[in-house]
Amino acid sequence: MAEFYVKAGRALQDILARRGSIKAITAQFGDDKGSARAQGNAKRILALVVNTLSFRSTLQAVLRKVDIATLEPKWFGTASPLNRIKGALPAPAPTLASCILLVLTHDLLFVTRGIQAAKAWPPRERLERHKARLHAEIVRIQLRMGKKNFEELRSGAEERQIAARIPRWCRVNTLRANTEEVIRSLTQLGWNQAETEQNDDAAIFTRSEYVPDVLAFHPRATSDLMRTELYRDGTLILQDLASCFPAAILDPLRDGQSEITAMDATSAPGNKTSHLSALMKGKGKVGLCHSNDQLIALERSPQRFITLQRLLERTGCLPRNHGNVHPQKTDFLSLDPEKFDSVQYMLLDPSCSGSGIVNRLDYLSGKDDEQDNLEEIDPLEKDKALASRLASLASLQEHMIRHAMKFPNLKRFTYSTCSIHEEENEKVVIKVLASEEARNGGWKLASRDEVLPSWPERGHASACKGDLQIANALVRCTPGGTLDTPPNSVHDGATNGFFVCCFVRKMS
Ligand SMILES: C[S@@+](CC[C@H](N)C(=O)[O-])C[C@H]1O[C@@H](n2cnc3c(N)ncnc32)[C@H](O)[C@@H]1O
């Protein structure tokens, strides 16, 4: 069992050194053979690591007061033999001994059965000598923070509640099958379609009223869905409802044109590209058209370009599968718009702070968790760091939109972010509307009746200088939706945080 804590400590060290996602890292430490026992082990390691991360601020505060590394240097100091275990990462990663100390302290303080390793294992034996002081310290923190119990000391409790309201949204890839066929297959597999806004049953799914071909499942259905052939062959795509808004709003076919050239300027991982491709139903070219050079979906990051290609292959979007998407590893900003005069429609979903994304585990290892420090972080410093990050993102976003506005025959393009910050959303829009490119190109916002008119949440008027018409033209999604639901009930109006609008050329 000592080995279990060493593996959990190693996984935690990799996570804190940002060597991959929490799930991927803990799966590696489960075992090598992939047996049922190994998978069970991976699950236990995942549970311990996630719990340790979610109590990390509290555990660190306790260990600052009861400084075990100094009290027990032989096992938890820098010279500890734990730091020489094969695979332990060197500095600047936190030491392996400190990571093992965190997982052990977690079990000592928060698990009724305590540490599950041989009593004589020195790290356990040395740590348990300080149990009374550690316990007294955590009680002191609990009281000082006005928490009713230890559970309330977890960070991210609010995020978990929000995430619990968001359905597991799935988009039917209509390049593979139509939605009625998919619903029939799902029914044969034991799922039932229901007409309800609120769902607390993993066997039930509903259809979105906002975007065709999008289904809402209970999050508990996720692993079963991922085991279906429908998921494996790219017929059913896990994609948040809000992330389906841009392609649905752009909808190039609604103009009734015969030849369509569209571009996804910032594509990876490729969910919106594949949605747009499906909406175009194989007609036209998603991407840019430049003499014989046909690029489709642009992505500048080489690593993410590989992910994009995989997704496009799996979802049947590539020409070799009779799809219409031509991916290209290119920086959108390096293009000369004049050379791409065939492009009429564009998705622009640039890099953003990602502050709207709630339903994933990784926030637990993120900077915010460190900043959520119980004693030492000056809130003003925290705000300053965020403000400067948002300012640099906003300036890049503004630059990308103004570049898009220079494409000579572009008729319409969407701008979207998965951010909740006005700095990346309304304020960017207001700025670009006043830009030279917008004035010269005749760019305006598409009005509410062209942009998901029935979606209730719209832009913040206060960030649009009080202009209600502009605010109404913008679509916003609050993470977890705006309605309260009972615990464990998902709501079909709940998504991740998102923002989208559509620019149209309206020459007077
Ligand atoms: C928010 S993600 C796009 C997500 C994607 N639309 C989807 O739904 O799957 C932004 C992507 O744009 C890429 N990117 C950022 N700036 C770019 C640029 N100037 N040219 C091309 N790609 C860019 C980033 O590498 C990243 O993969």
Describe this structure in words.
- It contains 21 helices and 18 strands.
- Strand 11, helix 16 and strand 12 form a beta-alpha-beta unit.
- Strands 7, 8, 13, 14, 15, 16 and 18 form a 7-stranded mixed β-sheet that branches.
- The protein is globular and about 80 Å long.
- The N and C termini lie far apart (74 Å).
- The protein has 508 residues and is α/β, with parallel strands linked by helices.
- Helix 1 packs across helix 3, helix 2 packs across helix 3 and helix 7 crosses helix 8.
- It binds S-adenosylmethionine.
Short description:
Residues 158-506 form the SAM-dependent MTase RsmB/NOP-type domain. This protein has 21 helices and 18 strands.
List the helices and strands and how they pair.
Elements lengths: L1 H15 L5 H9 L5 H19 L1 H10 L2 H4 L1 H4 L19 H15 L11 H7 L2 H14 L12 H9 L2 E5 L6 H10 L3 E2 L4 E2 L4 E4 L6 E4 L4 H5 L2 H4 L3 E3 L6 H6 L10 E4 L6 H9 L5 E2 L1 E3 L2 E3 L1 E3 L2 H13 L12 E3 L15 E4 L18 H5 L7 H26 L7 E6 L8 H8 L2 H6 L1 E3 L22 H6 L1 E3 L12 E2 L6 E8 L3
Parallel strand pairs: 2-4, 7-8, 7-13, 11-12, 13-14
Antiparallel strand pairs: 1-5, 1-6, 3-17, 4-5, 9-10, 14-18, 15-18, 16-18
Bound molecules: S-adenosylmethionine (SAM).
S-adenosylmethionine binds next to helix 15 and strand 11.
Protein name: 25S rRNA (Cytosine(2278)-C(5))-methyltransferase
Organism: Malassezia yamatoensis
GO molecular function, one term: RNA binding
Q: Residue share in helices?
A: 40-55%
Taking the sheet with the most strands, its summary is: 7 strands, mixed
CA radius of gyration: 25 Å
Oligomer: single chain
Give the overall form. Answer: globular
Strand content is 5-15%
The total of helices stands at 21
Distance between the termini: 74 Å
Mean pLDDT: 88
Hetero groups: S-adenosylmethionine
DSSP E strands, number = 18
Unreliable spans: 288-295, 366-379
Helix/strand structural class: alpha/beta
InterPro entries: MeTrfase_RsmB-F_NOP2_cat, MeTrfase_RsmB-F_NOP2_dom, NSUN5_7_fdxn-like, NSUN5_RCM1_N, RCMT, SAM-dependent_MTases_sf
GO biological process, one term: rRNA base methylation
Domain SAM-dependent MTase RsmB/NOP-type: 158-506
Binding site for S-adenosyl-L-methionine: 299, 331, 349
